[in-house]
């Protein structure tokens, strides 16, 4: 038997502004001097003292209005502001979906061994470059990161920028700019943004040698540490900066197991470090997204469970939806149950092997077969 947890209840119109994020619902604000008619004459007109007077979610059967409309007896103007799905509700649902699953936890021995050493190396760094997955920027930062860095200069890199849309990129840039964090979008595979990152690291730490000269010391290279979660692209980024393969890199977590200093010209030293994870991941919604994006070891999770949640998430994201899932796999998402979808795909294509079916769905997402999909949005 398969059970699909019901989504969180929709917010009331009075509280709508607290819940809705960007680009899929369309919220319209009206300035009206008279009652608004409905498309259904059997329903009474909407009065100005009705809370629905202020907010309408387009897509229902009763609302069919042009962007601007005029009438001899009644005049009103309509201003449209496109918004997206309720990401807060989706996050709540992901937490509900994960409660019945085996917790996703992964903390291999090399991470424990190098964490203490990394914290010591951080004291020597002039600037820290934190690399995150652009699809899940909030889930790919260590909870102790701010405490480790203190007031040290910091550059935030959102790698895999080719996997998200331009709108998502702009939204995240604005979000971090408000926090005073310099952010660069990169594509470690193709090298986009790598040179800009190198220039920014040198400029941010440019006062290092000025202070050394004041003390009568000789100038030295700027020291920049590149840190982040496993498999977010740290080593690939360094290789792109150096224009040659110096650091081991592969599309799986846990390849880098020890720290390594490399030199970029005469002016910049870079530290490649193993991916750092907390010993225990308390936020299982974040852990599931790490698994979906291949930013955590495969032994940490059940493929069928993770692929099932991914299917349920994709069905809720307007850029994909259940129609795109059907077009790709020729399977209906019955009852909104992702795990049943995975098992049906296993029966249809893999002789009943749900693991292979789950792997196919996860691989399709990771390869961008569903388009430019971000699994997180900036908080309101």
Report what the structure shows.
It holds the Pfam family MMR_HSR1. The protein is elongated. Helix 10 (about 305-315) packs across helix 13 (about 355-365). Helix content is about 35%, strand content about 15%. The protein has helices at about 15-20, 85-100, 110-120, 145-150, 165-180, 195-205, 205-215, 235-240, 285-290, 305-315, 320-330, 340-350, 355-365, and strands at about 20-30, 70, 75-85, 125-135, 155-160, 180-185, 220-230, 260-265, 270. It has about 375 residues and is an alpha/beta fold.
Brief synopsis:
This protein is an alpha/beta fold. It has 13 helices and nine strands.
CATH class of the domain at 107-272: Alpha Beta
Radius of gyration: 25 Å
The beta-strand count equals 9
The main sheet orders its strands as: 6-5-4-7-9-8
Number of helices: 13
- State the distance separating the first and last CA atoms: 38 Å
Largest sheet: 6 strands, mixed
Please state the average pLDDT score.
77
Q: In terms of per-residue confidence, which ranges show pLDDT below 50 for 5 or more consecutive residues?
A: 3-83
Q: Decide which structural class fits the backbone.
A: alpha/beta
Give the percentage of residues in beta strands: 15-25%
- Helix/strand order: HEEEHHEHEHEHHEHEEHHHHH
């Amino acid at each position: 038997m398969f059970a699909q947890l019901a989504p969180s209840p929709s917010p009331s119109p009075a509280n709508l502004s607290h819940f809705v994020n960007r680009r899929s619902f369309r919220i319209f604000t009206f300035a009206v001097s008279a009652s608004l008619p409905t498309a259904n004459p059997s329903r009474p007109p909407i009065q100005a003292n009705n809370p629905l007077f202020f907010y309408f979610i387009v897509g229902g059967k009763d609302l069919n209005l042009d962007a601007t409309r005029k009438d001899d007896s009644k005049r009103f103007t309509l201003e449209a502001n496109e918004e997206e799905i309720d990401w807060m509700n989706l996050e709540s649902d992901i937490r509900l979906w994960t409660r019945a699953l085996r917790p996703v936890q992964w903390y291999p021995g090399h991470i424990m061994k190098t964490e203490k050493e990394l914290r010591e190396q951080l004291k020597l760094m002039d600037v820290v470059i934190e690399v995150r997955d652009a699809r899940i920027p909030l889930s790919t930062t260590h909870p102790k990161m701010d405490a480790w860095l203190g007031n040290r200069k910091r550059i935030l890199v959102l790698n895999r920028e080719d996997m998200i849309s331009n709108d998502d990129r702009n939204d995240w840039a604005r979000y971090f700019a408000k926090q005073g964090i310099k952010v660069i979008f990169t594509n470690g595979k193709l090298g986009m943004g790598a040179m800009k990152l190198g220039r920014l690291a040198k400029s941010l730490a440019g006062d290092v040698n000025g202070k050394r000269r004041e003390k009568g010391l000789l100038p030295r290279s700027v020291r920049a540490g590149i840190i982040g979660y496993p498999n977010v692209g740290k080593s690939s980024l360094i290789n792109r900066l150096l224009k040659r393969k110096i650091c081991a890199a592969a599309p799986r977590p846990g390849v880098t197991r020890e720290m390594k200093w490399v030199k970029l010209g005469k002016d910049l030293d870079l530290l490649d470090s193993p991916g750092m994870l907390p010993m225990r991941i308390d936020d299982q919604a974040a852990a599931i997204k790490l698994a979906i994006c291949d930013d955590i070891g495969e032994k940490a999770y059940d493929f069928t469970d993770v692929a099932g949640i991914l299917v349920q998430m994709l069905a809720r994201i307007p850029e994909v939806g259940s129609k795109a899932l059907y077009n790709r796999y020729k399977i209906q998402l019955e009852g909104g149950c992702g795990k049943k979808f995975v098992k049906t795909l296993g029966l249809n294509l893999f002789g009943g092997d749900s693991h292979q079916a789950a792997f196919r769905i996860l691989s399709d997402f990771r390869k961008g077969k569903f388009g430019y999909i971000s699994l997180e949005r900036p908080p309101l």
